[in-house]
Amino acid sequence: MSSYCDFAPNVPFHDDYHDKEYGFPLSDDDRLFERLCLEIMQAGLSWDIVLKKRAGMVEAFDGFNLVKVAAYGEEDFERLRADARIIRNRLKISSIIDNANTILRLKEEFGSFSGWLDHHHPLTLKEWTKLFKKTFRFTGGEIVNEFLMSTGYLPGAHREDCPVFKEIARLNPAWMRKQA
Description:
The chain is an all-alpha fold. The chain is 61% helix and 0% strand. The protein has 11 helices and no strands. Helix 3 (29-42) packs antiparallel against helix 7 and helix 3 (29-42) runs antiparallel to helix 10.
């Protein structure tokens, strides 16, 4: 079976993402939010499109700063809908804005988005998906799986024989930690 580890190296846009981001544990809330947003934007499209549009999306969404995105109003929504640098799907954009507000509410209770994730870890993919669907908008099973794999909460981002796997293992991502 083919994996991202077979495809990504030496492929523009994919190589750096594979080698330096995919599967590495994240704890910064804005970076976690960005990753969730990228996975939402990818739904129904190729990851290649998302990576090619990533710089434009980072700029258009104010660096995926949670506080800024959560404060977006109708004018910002329309600005995003007209911005050819991003994926302009109405439902995806409104979900991203709503999810920023949800994460800010989670921060009140758990201190951070990563605190919320850590509080619920470990769960099975089925349990994570149920929790995400209850908590966020536009978060189906594939989005949840890729988000959690890409941020170190679920295994599977890299094959064990991939050199990046060893780098990630040294960082002790959530999925590798023993639970009490």
